[in-house]
Write a structure and sequence with these properties.
With about 160 residues, this protein is an alpha+beta fold. It has one domain: Kinase associated domain 1, KA1 (TATA-Binding Protein). The protein has four helices and five strands. Helix 2 packs antiparallel against helix 3. The protein is elongated.
Amino acid sequence: MELDKNIQLRPKFEQFSPKTIGEIKSTYEKIKTFASEDFKFRNAGNHIWLGVGMFRREFWSPSLHIELDSYEDGRTYVKGIFGPDPILWFIFLAMHFIVGGLFIVFGIIAYSKWTLSQPNSFDLFMMSVLSIIWLLLYFVARINRKKGAAQMRELFSLAHRIIA
C-alpha cells in the first residue's frame, strides 16, 4: 500500500477475503484479546474500527474503519478507510466549511462592490488570504498523514491479520 504517493487525505483499500463475516469476527475477537493494549478496538454490526492505543496515541494518529459485505459464494468484500480521530476530522472539516463560506461571502461582497463601482480591494485581499489558508489546511493534513504513516501500516497489517 503506497501511502506517501497517494494524494487522498484518507487512503482507502478494497479487497476480497476468503473468510465469512462470522469467521472474520471470531478472528477479530481473538486478536482483540491479545493486542488490547497496543490498539483500540470497536465494532458494531459489520463495521470494525481499529485505532492506536492510548499509550502510543499522538495528535496525528490514524484510525481505520473496516466495512464487511458478504457475497453468496462465502467470500467477504472488505472496504477500509484510514482517517484521523473522528473529532479531529470533524474540526478539520468545520474549518474547511468556515473558510469556504467566508470565501463565498467575500466573493459576493466583492462582486457587489464591483457592480456598484466601489473599491473592493479589501474583499479581494481577504479572498486571497482565505485561499492561502485553505491550502495551508491541506498541507497540514498531508504532514499529519505523513507523520502517521508508520501507524497506518501497523493498522493495515493488523487488519490484514483479521481479514486474511
